[in-house]
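Reply to dn_fold:

You asked what the input looked like. This is it:
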Amino acid sequence: MTGYKHAFRKAFPYTIPVLTGYLFIGIAFGVMYAEKGYSFLWAILMSLLVYAGSGQYLAVNFFTPGISFVQVIFMTLMVNIRHIFYGISLLDKFNQMGKKRWYMIFGLTDETYSLLCTTKIPEGVEEEKFLFAISIMNQSYWVIGSAIGGLAGSFLPFNSEGIDFAMTALFVVIFVEQWMDAKNRIPETIGVAAAFLCLQIFGADSFVLPSMLLIIMILFAGRRKLDEKEVAKCR
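and this is what came back:
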């Protein structure tokens, strides 16, 4: 444990924004899960072993009749396919972390990815321990929020209508932050345009998956030009 206490102490201030967000959306997930009639312990277990954020929100609806195993796989893949690109960009960094790389891959959420990519390692802290501390703390916030929400949903009856919008609100905040910080806003513009187009064609109930597929196709097709623009901006 040499150096880990110091790494956790140094990493904690950087995770405070994630703490405030994950507690609330974790609570929302726990409440939604409890409303399906499941024990809060299952909500905790899911957050420990699945830890997929929006994927967990989506999974709440998988426990209803009529959802096939193939649909579960496809929907989960489409919602979390962005993590493939997250992982590819961090391969070199994770390969230097030994056995801890397996947990780092597992714990790679949107918010954790953002911190791992943008946070400057403080002086006197080993990089791998600092990054590991960020990932561990972020998941702990989510698990704690899930536990609180599961308990509240089980023992405190209240109207939870609209609580699932918490995850949507978090993604809106992430998008706005990236829009404000990014020098190249072409990917964000493609995402908004593709979503708007598919919304008009497929309607509000069916536009998400077509939007994701269209965005992926456009980004793959224009990857070379986007890379060239990014390199030019960095010169």
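The chain has two domains: 4-163, 182-235.
Hope that clears it up.
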